[in-house]
Amino acid sequence: MSQIAPRSTVELEPTNQLTGMDRCDSCGAQAYIRVTMASGELLFCAHHGNKFKEKLSSSAIAWHDESARLIDKDRA
What we know:
Layout: E1 33-37, E2 40-44, H1 46-56, E3 62-65
Antiparallel strand pairs: 1-2, 1-3
């Protein structure tokens, strides 16, 4: 009989939700975007994340975007 080993999963994006303690590396506002680069992580507010997305997305390992949390669903 052979045994099948469980598959290991690789997560491309961090699972830790960004909090109010996470600050934008550009302006210090609350970060809603985490970019994982080969050299480390960058944190951005929604404004700066959108500003740098085109430039960084080609070399980013992962792009974790929680900016949808800014939309108040009760107002929509």
